[in-house]
Design brief:
The strands form five sheets. The protein has a ten-stranded mixed beta sheet, with helices on both faces. Strands 13, 14, 15, 17, 18, 21, 22, 24 and 25 form a nine-stranded antiparallel beta sheet that branches. A seven-stranded antiparallel beta sheet has the order 26-27-28-29-30-31-32, with helices on one face. The protein is globular. 52% of the residues are buried. With 691 residues, the chain is α+β, with helices and mostly antiparallel strands. It contains eleven helices and 32 strands. Among the domains are: 182 residues, Jelly Rolls, CATH 2.60.120.260; 114 residues. InterPro entries: CocE/Ser_esterase, Xaa-Pro-like_dom, Xaa-Pro_dipept_C, Xaa-Pro_dipeptidyl-ppase/CocE. Pfam families: Peptidase_S15, PepX_C. One of its GO terms (molecular function) is hydrolase activity.
């Protein structure tokens, strides 16, 4: 079975793109016939108030007249513009520069080519303050017209939103793909408030320890600022509950709504997709939203398609806000989503069936809510069950592999997970039904221990019995009364749990059944709860799912005009030379109760005749009879050969748990030209807090 973990997706799809494996290739040219600007690439530094110098690469169009100036687009990331992201950055830098924009690609302080220590965590106060100062400095460059935009996917979508909330005067608009407004519930560390351990923490904590580019100097300043800095995974594991740490930069908890225009892009197979709804509901500035069928990726290459050239629309967006050109973009429908037509489960679709649906607003006109109630006989009906009897489910900690690594990616037949779930099916539909939105869920439950995790899924059951995942969500019951003041369950005492299933679209076809599945394990997405036992679900008036039903449209009508993806200009200074992966595998033994999931990947590329290699392997394990003793272990190695000098950084991580604690060990090992230079290990026992 193929799975995609949240962190793996967040990092590796970006890395595959930047290494040219998923992006378009080809030469668009810079000839006068297509009216494109010639441009230059310039490496420089921008000094912050505290003396830290942030490394920047400018993709700058060459002025055609002495007084010509250009708007600036800022992207700030920790993902190392000079090595890991060099090839992919060129794709976007060249595209926008040739069309009259300066793209400034900046490494976050303490990472890549920038100076200073590695920050205390993601999206630190220093990082967002730097973004504000960068915007001010960029607006005052002699080649700038004084107007700045900020954009990016994932990390740079997050900090674009956070910076925009602070309203720097020169920041006129943003573009954010796959961002978040709620860092505890809607990021990679605690999915829906439940602990998610994955490869991203391991990867970033390895790469943060690499020497500063482009010199890769190994000295005492490097050890102090990078290699010896505590890995972020320790901080994240100490912060197991919602609070100021997570809310400091989360837009969802700011008193003022977003007041900077935002073009938002999401994916129906991306774990962060709900952010676009959150922003569009509250923003006082113009917002346009596009929700495609793909994963954690830009629309021109995301999988599965259909794909389109979002950069054409981005130019019209930037032209309007940064150049003052009325492109008509605000007169077009502001909401666009791909309505998926129900299809058989598959993990390798290049394109999914369906159609683009454009609307002026969400919810769409004519949308209604249809409530469905689970029945004691495993039915799903518009009327509640009369009895309210309890149905019991034994806890199997390794169940959930079919659902994948987060609420995204393509999944196979969900029957394997349904075997370990309570499932409730509607009668076969007599006519098609389309849903678009976030289905709401209420459960009346009880348990025999103070803590379990619940998982709810909406699925499509075909007449031949195959089951496709539509969407899902996890519920951490300790947060049922308050996210800030968690409370244990009272064993045997019924309680109410509420959640929203992540945003989705789906057309259920006639003859198909709607399935609502409830389980108490979602491995490897969520770290297993510690106690063997059972949970109960009470059918009746307090257990239901609300479906956001929208009026049917003719799939043959094309309401949205979509441009096909365009070729990007290949970077002239490098190429990928080898790739093996990513490779995913999972196993479950029903007799022994053992479940495991593994992931591996190897990449090699050349930049300016220097050789870069990255290798990684990760494994998650649990046994049904001993759920407290879950385990993660991983290894990531970066081997850079630069002007004949070999830098070899290896990082190993191991996380184990018991009923009361997590045990975390992280080791970094640095070699130069085959000789050990430094080794450092961090170890800590961290109390479990409702995770």
């Amino acid at each position: 079975m193929r799975l995609m973990l949240a962190a793996w997706q967040r990092w590796m799809l970006g890395l595959l793109l930047v290494l040219g494996l998923l992006g378009c290739s080809g030469q668009t040219g810079m000839t006068p016939e297509n009216n494109h600007y010639e441009f230059s690439m310039e490496n420089d530094f921008l000094e912050m108030r505290d003396g830290v110098r942030l490394a920047v690469t400018y993709y700058r169009p060459l002025a055609r007249s002495p007084d010509e100036s250009f708007p600036v687009i800022l992207e700030m990331l920790p993902y190392r513009k000079d090595d890991f992201f060099a090839l992919g950055d060129y794709d976007y830098g060249s595209y926008f520069a040739k069309r009259g924009y300066v793209l400034a690609r900046v490494d976050v302080r303490g990472t890549g080519g920038s100076t200073g220590p590695v920050p205390v965590s993601e999206y630190s106060a220093a990082e967002i303050a730097d973004a504000q100062e960068l915007i001010d400095q960029l607006s005052r460059k002699p080649w700038s017209n004084g107007k700045v935009g900020m954009y990016g996917l994932s990390w740079s979508a997050f900090n674009s939103l956070m910076t925009a909330h602070r309203k720097p005067p020169a920041l006129k608009a943003i573009i954010a793909a796959h961002g978040s407004t709620d860092l505890f519930y809607n990021d990679v560390h605690y999915i829906d408030g439940a602990l998610h351990i994955d490869s991203y923490a391991h990867q970033i904590d390895t790469d943060n320890a690499m020497p500063q580019s482009p010199d890769y100097r190994i000295d005492e300043a490097y050890f102090k600022n990078r290699f010896d800095r505590e890995p972020w995974i320790f901080t994240w594991l100490r912060q197991q509950q919602d609070g100021e740490f997570w809310r400091a930069q989360s837009l969802a908890f700011k008193q003022q709504p977003l007041e900077v225009p935002a073009y938002l892009i999401g994916g129906l197979l991306d774990g962060y997709r709900d952010f676009a709804l959150d922003v569009s509901r509250t923003s006082t500035a113009p917002v346009i939203v596009e929700m495609g069928p793909w994963n954690h990726a830009w629309p021109e290459y995301g999988v599965p398609g259909p794909n389109y050239e979002w950069r054409q629309k981005a130019l019209r967006w930037w032209d309007y806000w940064l150049k003052g050109i009325d492109t008509g973009i605000l007169q077009e429908p502001a909401r666009m989503a791909f309505m998926r037509t129900g299809h058989a489960p598959a993990t390798d679709l290049k394109t999914v069936p369906g159609y683009w649906r454009c609307d002026a607003q969400w919810p769409v006109q004519g949308a209604i809510t249809e409530r469905r109630y689970p029945q004691a006989g495993q039915g799903l009906s518009p009327a509640p069950a009369a009895s309210g009897l309890a149905q019991t489910l034994r806890y199997k900690a390794g169940a959930g592999l079919a659902g994948g690594g987060w609420w995204g990616e393509q999944t196979g037949d969900m029957a394997a997970d349904d075997m370990h779930s309570l499932v409730y099916d509607s009668a076969p539909l007599t006519e098609a039904m389309e849903i678009m939105g976030m289905p709401q869920v209420r459960l009346k439950v009880a348990a025999d221990a103070p803590f379990y995790q619940w998982s709810v899924r909406l699925e499509d059951v075909a007449p031949d019995g195959r089951v496709s995942l539509v969407s899902g969500a996890v519920i951490n019951p300790s947060q049922r009364f308050s996210r800030l003041e968690p409370q244990a369950l009272v064993p045997g005492e019924p309680t109410i749990l509420n959640t929203a299933i992540h945003f989705t679209t789906w057309r259920f076809k006639p003859g198909h059944r709607i399935r609502f599945a409830v389980s108490n394990a979602q491995f490897p997405m969520i770290w297993p709860s510690p106690t063997p036992g059972a949970t109960s679900l009470f059918t009746g008036v307090d257990t239901w799912v609300d479906l956001p039903v929208v009026p049917l449209r003719d799939q043959g009508s094309q309401a949205c005009r979509m441009s096909p993806p365009q070729a990007s200009e290949a970077a002239p200074f490098g190429r990928v030379i080898d790739s093996d992966g990513p490779v995913f595998s999972s196993t479950r033994d029903e007799e022994t109760g053992d479940s495991s999931f593994t992931a591996s990947n190897e990449l090699s590329w050349v930049l300016h005749d220097n050789l870069y290699r990255s290798q990684e392997r990760y494994r998650w394990e649990v046994n049904d009879a001993r759920p407290a003793q879950a385990r993660y272990q991983g290894e990531r190695r970066n081997l850079f050969t630069i002007e004949g000098r070999e830098i070899d950084l290896l990082a190993r991580a191991r996380i184990e748990s018991d009923e009361s604690y997590f045990y975390l060990t992280f080791t970094r090992e640095l070699k130069e030209d085959g000789m050990l230079v430094r080794e450092k290990t961090w170890q800590e026992r961290i109390a479990r807090m409702y995770q």
